[in-house]
Amino acid sequence: MENTLRKNLIDTINELNKLLYLSITDEQIANLRKKRKLCFVLLEEVIEQEISDETDEFKEAIVALQEATSQAKEVKNDIEKISKAISKISKATKQVEKIVKVGIDIVA
Fold it and tell me: Under a CB-based contact definition with an 8 Å cutoff, are residues 16 and 43 in contact?
């Protein structure tokens, strides 16, 4: 299995899309959409930039994305865990932002 930022961001985005179909609050939907939009922006930057996969930050970002994706998969069975998934996604996107350095101010 490939361990790239691109693949892991896409996996996270796909799970966020699935969460949006659950019966959740408007606030949770809005928060999930913001996180999904941030993941798309980060994905675009990952595609355009040359990023070393040898740094600790890269490895931490991969692990954070995998944890976020895993949590999002688990949450489908328990809507109460959505806020925990959003928190994991926030942590993951912050880790990716450290390496991507988008150059714009993203409110996440």
Answer: no
